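step=encode ok
step=design start
structure_in=
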């Protein structure tokens, strides 16, 4: 059995009765965020450093706004702010001059409703009647009861047990609950002993090479189109009081569409690996991609840095790992260093061998390959030195099967099939 977590979305059945209490908590979370944001700015202005998560908790634990929420809920607000500042600080160090620090949560004279998180100490679950008691902070207890009693409803196939966290999320019109549960999943036997290598990229989000000689490309054009559409000037409006309501909705929709793409891609890759009897796959580990060999920050240029920092390779790999584990497939993260420069046929490394239009040419071997597929083959060889068992001709390597994401079906299919659909 595999022990992991799953997040289930739940509708609040008694929304009218609890919306005011949840609203009070959401507003309080925004106020606490703003207090911590101001404190962090003062620290940055005085020292050039940002306070750590532990520093924020120590400095603000006695603040009035901290006592509006259950202590663990307040801690989570401060943790999120620290994570946001750390992400901005890393981008700044890596040369992304366009990166902005986290802003204040305020719109005019009003505070928006922030997501509120309850951890286990603030939750009591009545699984028999689908009810949750969510604790309030000391300040809010004085006005009504000590807790918010929510009745929820999930999909018929979902069993809610072992709740680790509850998040109340405002979608612009109403609240919904995200229930984070610990679950045990039966692990299947590995589909086989074959291997696969995955090269992650920006133009082609993913290239995969199997040891039977098959190779596939997964372009990221849908993500680029979505980002371009939902960050247009009419959507991406932001003033002194933060993003507009329309901008917030556009960002939420963009985030949901990206989530669906990544989940669908991870699921599809696992299905393809099962069909190819893959028991182990190697994925390029890009955790050091922002660094030079000497440890200095790598500057990809203004445009390159923006693309790189929006590239959620770690999140996708994490999704792939847990989906693969359910089917007994092991995922190894391997360094991608030099895999794009090395010929997968002869092993020679040449900087100039990668030519335009994504082709890799090895004159000494007489091979012409898709550059991303060449990288995927080299990554596969990080876990096995066995040569491919199938056809490795120039035509097969240079023109792999391309799979496109169909937004209507929400699934991936070969490009010729997607192109023929209405």
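sequence_out=
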């Amino acid at each position: 059995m595999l022990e992991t977590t799953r997040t289930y979305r739940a509708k609040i059945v008694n929304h009218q009765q609890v919306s005011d209490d949840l609203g009070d908590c959401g507003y309080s979370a925004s106020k606490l965020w703003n207090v911590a944001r101001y404190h962090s700015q003062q620290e940055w202005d005085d020292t050039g450093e940002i306070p750590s998560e532990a520093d924020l908790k120590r400095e603000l634990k006695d603040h009035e706004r901290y006592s509006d929420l259950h202590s663990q809920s307040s801690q989570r607000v401060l943790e999120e702010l620290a994570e946001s500042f750390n992400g901005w600080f890393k981008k700044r160090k890596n040369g992304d001059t366009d990166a902005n620090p986290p802003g204040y949560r305020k719109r005019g004279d009003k505070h928006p409703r922030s997501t509120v998180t309850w951890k286990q100490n603030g939750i009591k679950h009545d699984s028999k009647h689908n009810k949750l008691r969510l604790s309030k902070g000391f300040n809010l207890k004085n006005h009504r009861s000590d807790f918010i009693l929510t009745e929820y409803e999930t999909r018929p196939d979902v069993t809610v047990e072992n709740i680790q966290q509850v998040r109340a999320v405002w979608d612009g019109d109403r609240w919904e609950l995200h229930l984070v549960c610990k679950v045990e999943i039966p692990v299947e036997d590995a589909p086989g002993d074959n291997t696969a290598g995955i090269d992650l990229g920006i133009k082609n989000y993913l290239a995969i090479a199997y040891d039977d000689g098959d190779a596939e490309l997964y372009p990221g054009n849908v993500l680029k189109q979505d980002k371009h559409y939902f960050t247009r000037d009419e959507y991406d409006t932001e003033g002194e009081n933060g993003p507009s309501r329309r901008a917030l909705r556009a960002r939420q929709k963009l985030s949901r569409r990206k989530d669906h793409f990544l989940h669908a891609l991870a699921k599809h890759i696992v299905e393809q690996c099962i069909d190819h009897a893959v028991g182990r796959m190697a994925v390029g580990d890009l955790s050091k991609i922002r660094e030079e060999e000497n440890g200095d920050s790598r500057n990809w240029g203004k445009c390159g840095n923006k693309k790189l920092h929006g590239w959620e390779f770690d999140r996708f790999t994490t999704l792939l790992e847990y989906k693969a584990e359910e089917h007994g497939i092991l995922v190894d993260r391997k360094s991608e260093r030099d895999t794009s420069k090395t010929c997968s046929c002869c092993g020679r490394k040449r900087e100039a061998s990668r030519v335009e239009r994504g082709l890799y040419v090895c004159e000494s071997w007489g091979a012409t390959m898709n550059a991303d597929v060449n990288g995927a083959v080299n990554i596969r060889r990080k876990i096995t030195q066995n040569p491919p068992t199938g056809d490795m001709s120039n035509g097969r390597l240079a023109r792999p099967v391309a799979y496109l994401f169909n937004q209507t079906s929400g699934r991936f299919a070969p490009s010729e099939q997607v192109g023929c659909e209405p």
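step=design ok
step=annotate ok -> DSSP finds eleven helices and 19 strands in the chain.
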